[in-house]
């Protein structure tokens, strides 16, 4: 089974491109993930390249910036190619899900406390209106 779940911070702003011919949105970025065990008390991290597609790619590029914390769920994909007669190996995360845990730009939102912009709780982009409230009296336990 090839499944990975990571939590980390973006090392730079995400790059959004559209595939030629199909127009599929492709977003690439790198996240820094802290290692569980540290050497001699010093923080240590891995820098992992992530690729995400379609609507999730567009949302990530629009709402995430350098330093934003994200949770990634997806698969690990490896590939290799020849460059200057040397075989180069590449490992990346293909994200199925990107959850926005915080947004470094939320402090820049100075509209008198009425935060109508995007924040960490708005990562489902409007699906909250699809939720039907449940009356607690209907629950059998």
From TrEMBL:
Record field: compositional bias (Low complexity): 108-124
Keywords: DNA-binding
GO molecular function, one term: single-stranded DNA binding
Stretches assigned to coiled coil: none
Superkingdom of this protein's organism: Bacteria
UniProt subunit comment: Homotetramer.
NCBIfam families according to UniProt: ssb (TIGR00621)
Protein name (database record): Single-stranded DNA-binding protein
Protein species of origin: Clostridium estertheticum subsp. estertheticum
């Amino acid at each position: 089974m090839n499944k990975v779940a990571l939590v980390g911070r973006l090392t730079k702003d995400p790059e959004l491109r559209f595939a030629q011919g199909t127009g599929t949105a492709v977003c690439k970025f790198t996240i820094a993930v802290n290692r569980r065990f540290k050497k001699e008390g010093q923080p240590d991290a891995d820098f992992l390249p992530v690729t995400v597609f379609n609507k999730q790619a567009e949302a990530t590029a629009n709402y995430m910036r350098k330093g934003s914390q994200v949770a990634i769920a997806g698969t690990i994909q490896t590939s290799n190619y020849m460059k200057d007669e040397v075989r180069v190996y590449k490992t990346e995360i293909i994200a199925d899900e990107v959850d926005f845990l915080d947004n470094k730009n939320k402090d820049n939102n100075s509209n008198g406390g009425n935060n109508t912009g995007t924040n960490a709780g708005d990562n489902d982009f409007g699906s909250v209106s699809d939720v039907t409230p449940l009356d607690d009296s209907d629950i059998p336990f």
